[in-house]
Amino acid sequence: MSRSSSFLLDRMSQSYLGAFNNQLLRFFEELAGSYPEEKGIQMALEAIQATKKINPKLILDLFYDNVYRDCHEWIENEDEAIIVFAKSKISNEYNEMSAALFIFDKYWPEMSENNQSAIWKYLKVLCILCERAKGLPSKGSMA
Fold first, then answer.
1. Is residue 142 exposed (0-12), middle (13-18) or buried (19+ Cβ within 10 Å)?
2. What averages of pLDDT result for each successive group of 10 residues across the chain (143 residues)?
3. Which of 57, 101, 104, 131 is the most exposed place for a label (fewest CB within 10 A)?
4. Domain boundaries, the chain
């Protein structure tokens, strides 16, 4: 691979990383606005905002390790099996992504179809951006 094509791939990856971080921030801002009583969501949003300034790739890695790797197929298929996974993941470990998984456990059953659909869309886009930022083969679709 030539230096110029390597540079171009690196720039594209950085562009996808920026888009990923911006989308994740919007998702957490929406969650914080919808569930203001959940302080964990607000704390996660603040942690993501701070981490974006210091080490934006860490946010991508956290999402990849804690959401994408285990859940991308459920997300792509809008499979509510993710709820069982979310309960298990939250009870075993906590990180910035746990607040997003928490909504599946606590609010999903009573959530409107429109809100559920919006969450699936956010998660699908995040998975696609994660794939592109990490240079993975694309598994998602923008359906």
1. exposed
2. 45 78 93 88 88 92 89 92 75 62 78 92 95 81 47
3. 57
4. 3-134
